[in-house]
Amino acid sequence: MLEFRTAGESHGKCLIAIIEGFPAGILIETSGINKELKRRQGGFGRGARMQIEHDEVEILSGTRKGMSLGSPICLRIKNSDYSIDRLPALTRPRPGHADLAGVMKYNQVDARNILERASARETAARVAAGALAKMLLGFFSIEVLGYVKEIGGIKSRVIPCLKAGTSLCEPEKMRSIRDQSKLYCLDKTAEKDMIEKINRAKKDGDSVGGVFEVMAFDVPPGLGSYSQWNTRLDGRLAQALMSIQAIKGVEIGLGFAVSKKSGSEVHDEIVYDAAETDISISGGFQRLTNNAGGIEGGISNGQPIIVRAAMKPIPTLKKPLKSVDIVTKEPQIAAAERSDVCAVPAASVVGEAAVAFEIARAFMEKFGGDHILETSRNYEGYLNQVKSM
Ligand code: EPS
Question: Is the pTM of this model over 0.85?
Answer without folding.
Answer: yes
